[in-house]
Amino acid sequence: MSDTNVADFPQNNEQATTDVGGVAGDRLKSFIERVERLEEEKTALMEDIKEVYGEAKSVGFDIKIIRKIIRLRKMDGEKRREEDELLELYKAAIGMHS
Predict the structure, then answer these.
(1) Residues 66 and 98 in one domain
(2) In a domain, 41, yes or no
(3) DSSP characters for 11-74?
(4) pTM given for the model
């Protein structure tokens, strides 16, 4: 009879972790599980954002413009001014007048 105890085996389809080649199995598994949970949350948030865009579109807002405004609001004011100036310069250079 073996000295192995049933409690020594992984439960619920979980695999035992070990330290292999200097890699701490438990710590690595912890990082992986955290990322997996965050990915699940990110997926749920992306669905929520998609729904908000859908609502905005259903009442007549232009989603492309809303996305642009959101991108611009994230920018530093100076960076935004610089981008606007470059855009105007490039438009003038190719004959597009505002």
Answers:
(1) yes
(2) yes
(3) STTPPP---BTTB-HHHHHHHHHHHHHHHHHHHHHHHHHHHHHHHHHHTT--HHHHHHHHHHHH
(4) 0.63
